Write the structure tokens for this entry.
Amino acid sequence: MAGYVKNRGKNTWLVTMPLGRDPDTKKRKFHYHTVHGTKKDAEKYLAKIVRDKDLGVFIEPTSTTVNEYLNQWLEIAAKPKLRERTYVEYSNLLNRYVKNILGNKKLAEVQPLDVQALYTHMLAKGLSARTVKYTHNVLSSAFKQAIKWKLIMQNPVAQAELPKQTKIEMKVMSPEESKLFLEVASKHRLGVFFHLMLLTGMRPSEILGLQWEDIDLEKHLVIVQRSVVWRTKGSGWYFSQPKTLRSNRNIPLSNLLIVDIKEHRHKQLEERLKEGSKYENHNLVFATSTGKPFMQRNIIRYFKEIIKESNLPKTLRLYDLRHTCATLLLFANENPKVVAERLGHASVTLTLDTYSHVLPTMQKAATDKLEEILYKNSLQTQCRQ
């Protein structure tokens, strides 16, 4: 018997398909599924699962809930291959946005419409399209693994549509504003931090992770090879590998910056002697008065103070120093590949996509250069006439 459909009330049908006998108990097993709709809908579902069974691809739906499965996926599949920080981000994301909406549903019963409703709910709460996309990527990875583990047959996340992302306009400082910023920053305790970020384009976490052996004062180089990551809820900090393989890089330093770094080191040594045994020596280039790494929120507080003193736009963010570095280099017609290497981007494509607003000027400069090469003699002749 291939299976049958039985009416269970108005527009409700119970689909039953035999699965053979349990190898241990020898009792007959059945797959049951309730279809809400017409009898034709139920018969269509039965035909599909019978075909899947004949082809050997039928998966008996699990009774596991989404919450139960996501907890398993995080611990068994995600945690071993993710960095600690990324694992925490995944866990927080699912706890905050997914589990309270989809968590009590059975994993096998989640439909694309359910996922779409989740995204609509997130947007209604004021979350950005970028956050929805990040949630989508994490959730899709989890459901792909469920298919590999033969818990479900299809990935409902793959069939949900993402909201259109609006590109956030990047804010950068002009050369004049950058000079003013550096002038004011030089009067602050962490002025060298901001000087270094603006001239190298390093990420804040990379600068916080610098140890003195990473700065070659003779060759005027900084070696980027780690970041500082603070755990949530005050549970300490740790060194992490940079964001991507390309993030491991050497960046030349200017003569003036080297002078500032040497002066900063001298002041730090004085501070260390003053603290004595209270100082925790982690050999950090930028450390608190007790030797610990700074939290990024404290760096942001110093940054805002400098912005206020400089009378620069309050909308500027710490990360805009990195954007300013890249933009100034591209405006100066520096090769995008060189800029990508300086920023530690995974590819030059990412650099060009991120700083596409600079390209029109670069394209005009490129046209002028071609005109000079191809039409130089013709232009000179026209001018004489």
The mean pLDDT is 88. The CA atoms of residues 250 and 328 lie 20 Å apart. The beta strands are 4-9, 12-21, 28-36, 215-216, 221-224, 227-230, 237-240, 249-252. The two ends are 96 Å apart (CA to CA).
